[in-house]
Design a protein that fits this description.
This protein is of the alpha/beta class. The chain contains seven helices and 20 strands. Strand 9 and strand 10 form a beta hairpin. It is globular, with a radius of gyration of 21 Å. Bound molecules: FE2/S2 (inorganic) cluster.
């Protein structure tokens, strides 16, 4: 339904056009009035309505929402962390989007998330570093005694690379029960602030500043089969969500498809196998794109491993985390297989 735009006349006599924007969280809906020329995020903040956000300048992708009716327009002279497919699908960054008509916007998280998981800043201590694969390190940090970080499994935290002013964002791989000890799986790049730190300087006991939780990725539904597609360190939020599903004794089938480019990049295979032994409704498929002869690892990508059987139940919720190309291909494939767009939830890696 599209509602007509409204007008109000301020004391100056100029007409200030506003548009009604209904924000549909997963647990409630709220309506705000957005004056033309003001971003949805700013208009919401001005009226005390909270939205997931981080950078406020259109680079992090945290404030994303999907326009299902109306018109939210972002300046077109910029590069955004949204693919063409996502833009075509109505995805908009609410810190950049301005209303040009009354609009309905779907959000992928409950409004209660913003109250239940308040943003914290803290200085933590590095308590563990483990090389999981040639290109992957598991970093564990512990918060001070008086500080804990409640988060929605799937969310991420910003870490300041020690000795620099650089911040990087990583999803928690640990479960929500661990509010003081957080674990991150970090891909080692040939160069990069965090990669150089982990390779060359990191020591147990280092102090590391952090800010979180951030983001809105997480389990959206409490019913229906779960399908998870993870590329590389995109496995991290899936592990955290699996922990949640295990704790809640989730009964529906859960399928995880995890893939890397090379078999030598794969990690946590033993842990995943162990999880299938105590979560009997969990099945795990592992892929590697480059040719290999490792038994039990499928040739290809998490997307090429998808079949109609994975989404045969229309109540299936799919969760994707990985590089942009994987997400784009997964969105296309899942919808070809008949899964509604509203059942697909994604978190993509962003450039530093
Ligand atoms: Fe970062 Fe909008 S808050 S893109």
């Amino acid at each position: 339904m599209t509602i007509a735009a409204s007008e109000s006349r301020p004391a100056s006599g100029n007409v200030a056009r506003t548009h009604s924007v209904r924000l549909h969280y997963t647990d409630t809906s709220k309506e705000i009035l957005v004056p033309e020329g003001i971003s949805v995020l700013d208009a919401a903040a001005a009226t005390g309505v909270r939205l997931a956000r981080q950078c406020g300048i259109g680079t992090c992708g945290t404030c994303v929402g999907r326009v299902r009716d109306g018109a939210l327009v972002m300046p077109d002279n910029r590069i955004y962390p949204l693919s063409e497919g996502e833009m075509a699908d109505g995805m908009r960054l609410l810190c950049q989007a301005k209303a040009e008509a009354d609009s309905e916007v779907e959000l992928d998280y409950p409004a209660s998330m913003l109250d239940d998981y308040p943003l914290r800043q803290a200085t933590a201590k590095v308590t563990g570093m483990q090389r999981l694969a040639e290109t992957v390190v598991e970093l564990t940090v512990r918060l001070p005694k008086q500080v804990s970080l409640a988060f929605r499994p799937g969310q991420y935290t910003r870490l300041r690379v020690p000795g620099t002013d650089e911040w990087r964002s990583y999803s928690m791989a640990s479960g929500e029960r661990q509010k003081r000890e957080l674990t991150f799986t970090i891909r080692l790049l040939p160069t990069g602030a965090m990669s150089d730190y982990l390779r060359d300087r990191a020591t147990i006991g280092d102090q590391i500043e952090l800010e979180g939780p951030l983001g809105s990725f997480g389990l959206a539904s409490d019913a229906g089969p779960v399908l998870m597609l993870a590329g590389g360190t995109g496995l991290a939020p899936m592990l955290s969500m699996l922990d949640k599903l295990q704790m809640s004794r989730y009964k529906e089938p859960i399928r995880l498809v995890f893939g890397c480019t090379r078999v030598t990049d794969l990690f946590h295979l033993d842990e995943l196998e162990a999880r299938t032994s105590f979560m009997t409704n969990l099945s795990v498929h592992v892929t590697a794109a480059e040719p290999h002869d490792q038994p039990g690892v499928l040739a290809g990508t998490p997307v090429s491993a998808l079949t109609a059987d994975h989404v045969s139940d229309p109540a299936t919720s799919a969760y994707l985390c990985g590089p942009p190309a994987m997400l784009e291909a997964a969105f296309t494939r899942l919808q070809e297989l008949g899964l509604p767009r509203a059942n697909i939830h994604a978190e993509q890696f962003l450039p530093s």
